[in-house]
Fold:
Amino acid sequence: MGHSELPLFYVFHFYFFGIVAVASAIAFVTRKSPVAAALWLVNVMFSLAAMYVLLDAHFIGAMQVLVYAGAIMVVFLFVIMLLNLGHADTLADARGMWWKLAAGFVGLALLAQVFALTRVRLPEALVLPEGTVADQVARTGAIAPVASSMFTEYLLAFEVTSVLLLAAVVGAVVLGKRKEREHAG
Amino acid sequence: MLAESLFFSAVLFTIGVVGVLTRRNAIIIFMCVELMLNAVNLTFVAFAQVYGVAGQVFVFFVMTVAAAEAAVGLAIIIALFRHRQTVNLSHINLLKG
Structure:
């Protein structure tokens, strides 16, 4: 991947948003208050959306802002406030020293593994010529390549997804409903 | 930018794992899982730039599954809170021997 031909503007913003994402993620796992943690996670998601745009995935970037930062995180914040969990001091939240050591060890092992995986040589036969996706986006717009693939090649998965969403809605309603018998009895 | 994307993705995923292991608040653990899903999405998008837009379609599916998971998981957390008046996982030890 020789990206020396990429403009400095592009490279600078990619690193900028990546560093913002990592810093926000560290702030997210270290905050005591759930509300502050959720807002830092929103920051991570916005930075990731910017990175998606820089990686020629404009549609996914917009979806990231709408679905993740917009919908999912609002549901999280809604539940935090519904259960009145905003106060950090009532929770002895962080685990003990041994857990932290174990987590650090697991984290280092995982990081080493993932870095080893990134050194794997990619199968050359599958690699598209450089700039193919960018050209596609420039020619047909950001949504058309994703949509044409989704509604032809992955149509079955798309339909199954609707069943999944239906099951999730029914499950959430059933779990969230108070049982009438408990109140009567 | 493939190598850089994979680097950031690996770091974000690891932060998510460490968060799951070191926190006790069920909602924060759940948000750490979301962070891990986001890290994987970044990998998908980065590879989509090299291998074609199928990776972006997969990100779309991952987002759908994450939305479903958030709905059901938060309903479970609400049910749990109703039952035990806490979301601190060290107080939820019904199955502990």
